[in-house]
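tool_call: predict_structure(chain=1)
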Amino acid sequence: MFTGADLIVVFEDNYASYSGNRSQELSHLPSQSINNYQRKNFAYLVNSVPSSWGTNDLQTFIQQIQTGGQYIFVTDLSLSQGHSIYGQFGSDWSTFTEAMNSFSN
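tool_result:
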């Protein structure tokens, strides 16, 4: 890992990739204190989460990944289906914002 960055995207991929071995590997990253980076310096960008998820499902997932990173973006849009995941909001946008809001209260 390098030094000097304020924020490092440690995961940018689909939900299936995260839910495999990656989740275990990444959950230990903040405790390793590599170059003094901590949770506040890490971001997770996860696409292709199940569009059938409700607020509780997203809250559970967000709670799982927030131990590894402070900045989180989750969408049901899929890069593999040609969606522009950073150029539009998925059908789960309001569910995502509602789930995130529950952590700020």
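agent: Residues 8-104 form a domain with the Barnase; Chain D fold (CATH 3.30.370). Proceeding to next step.
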